[in-house]
Design a protein that fits this description.
Length: 469
């Protein structure tokens, strides 16, 4: 789908503050040593996707939204800063506890200066949906990694809904300036790729539309936005559409602030979970992990590979299913992972590839085109990291094929992380079960999604050291 009107590219319209990308912390090389058995009970931080949405919908709600177990990583803190810039009163009430008094739909203030999202792809894209449907002008920017991520997929539907792209970096990247309309136009939009971020941006824009905004997705993606919108009082209808779904939102509802408890992030839980599977003799319980069916592709795949993962104490938490996961070290077998499963585990492919390196026989992961446009080109980064540690791996089109030998991998390599937190954590996990350990060139960006990763893993028995640059 193309824009009905061309995007502007007027350098004079770009605020000078957008000229320099957000800096990263100084690189922090790390290495993981071969580990003794991992044991214990741990709770990983709150889900990143839900944390972003809780802050953003708190901004758009009337009254007070109280959030518990919010992920306090850098990505979510950037979204909090942006919500404040749009007029929300946001205060921390304790560890993981936050109070948001919203500006309400239609009540946004125009932010002063540049909205710097650092590495936060979800926060920036969802906030574009908010800004692009209100009569305000906002400039979005981020770090070097975010500046490489495509934004045209978000801008296209927003322009159809009445927004104007005042300026953008070449190719539809940040830094960009977006001006919203006086009245947003409701649309029916078919997403060009399975992406919850595209869907969510359109639905958030539709909140300030006088009619019904509909998103049609060919493959179902994570549904946290729909669930939270309904929880706060919006009228959302979800129906099957072929192998995907049709999501319809009636615009201009009165969202009411409520208490939101953020469940543990399954994408973060994947790292101690796979570590426990791979390190001999391990048994670990990960508490309160979200088991929303649209987020459990990794659990399904690992079960097919022979992983011993038991779900205990199943319960509902703020409209999301959660369970405690008991994980026992297991011998894994290679499997064929269908492309249709990708939306339910898109962030977990790096750690799945690590698990596949220890499995017996090949594992083919199909349809991974979306990995090329994440924080890094994850498809290439994963393949390079595996090869550097003695694993035979191939990229065939958009498929990744990992040839496991059913034994500990050699390790001993240093993996370039390309400023990608999931690449760093995945290969540190590999080091715990390899013969010679694994180093990563930078672990500083792990704080964007899992700031407690190192201490949590150390409590289970893992050993990490500084590594040469």
């Amino acid at each position: 789908m193309t824009d009905p009107a061309p995007h502007g590219n007027d350098p004079a319209a770009m605020p000078k503050a957008a000229a320099a990308p957000s800096p990263h912390p100084a690189p922090h090389p790390l290495a993981a040593r071969p580990s003794r058995a991992l044991r214990g009970r741990v709770a990983v931080p709150g889900d990143k996707s839900i944390s972003h949405r809780a802050v953003i919908l708190g901004l758009l709600a009337i009254g007070e939204t109280r959030i518990e177990n919010l992920l306090e990583g850098d990505d979510v803190l950037r979204t909090i800063a942006a919500a404040r810039a749009f007029g929300a009163d946001i205060r921390q009430t304790g560890p993981g506890g936050w109070r948001v008094v919203g500006a309400g739909i239609g009540g946004l203030a125009e932010p002063e200066g540049v909205l710097d999202f650092g590495n936060a792809g979800t926060g920036s894209r969802l906030m574009m949906g908010v800004a692009g449907s209100h009569p305000v002008t906002a400039t979005f920017d981020g770090d070097a990694s975010l500046r490489r991520r495509p934004m045209r997929r978000i801008l296209d539907p927003l322009v159809r809904m009445g927004a104007t792209v005042v300026s953008e970096a070449e190719g539809g990247h940040v830094p960009l300036t977006l001006r919203g309309p006086v009245e947003t136009i409701p649309v029916t939009y078919e997403t060009p790729a399975p992406s919850a971020q595209i869907k969510s941006a359109v639905l958030l824009a539709g909140l300030n539309s006088p009619g019904v905004t509909t998103v049609v997705e060919r493959e179902a993606t994570r549904d946290h936005t729909e669930r939270m919108l309904a929880y706060l009082g919006a009228e959302v209808t979800v129906s099957p559409e072929g192998s995907g779904r049709r999501v319809a939102l009636r615009g201009q509802p009165e969202l009411r602030g409520r208490e939101i408890v953020v469940p543990a992030d399954p994408s973060s839980a994947a790292f101690p979970l796979v570590a426990a599977l791979l390190v001999p003799g391990s048994e670990v319980v990960i508490e309160g992990v979200m088991t929303n069916p649209l987020r459990t592709g990794l659990l399904t795949t690992l079960a097919e590979m022979g992983a011993a993962i038991a779900s205990e104490n199943r319960r509902d938490l703020g409209g999301e299913e959660v369970a405690d996961l008991r994980v026992t070290a297991s011998r894994l077998e290679g499997v064929d992972v269908p492309a249709a499963r990708a939306p339910s585990m898109i962030d977990e492919y790096p750690i799945l590839a690590v698990a596949a390196a220890f499995a017996r026989g090949p594992t083919r992961m199909r349809g991974l085109a979306e990995l090329r446009v994440k924080e890094s080109d994850r498809l290439a980064a994963v393949a390079a990291g595996l090869a550097a540690n003695g694993v035979r791996v191939e990229i065939e089109g958009d498929d990744l094929v990992v040839h496991g030998e059913g034994a500990a991998v050699a390790g001993g390599g240093t993996v370039p992380t390309h400023l990608d937190h999931r690449i760093a954590m995945a290969f540190l996990v590999m080091g715990l079960a390899s013969r010679d350990g694994v180093a990563v060139d930078d672990g500083a960006m792990i704080a964007t999604s899992f700031p407690s990763f190192l201490p949590l893993m150390r409590r289970l028995g893992a050993e990490f050291t500084g590594a040469p640059a």
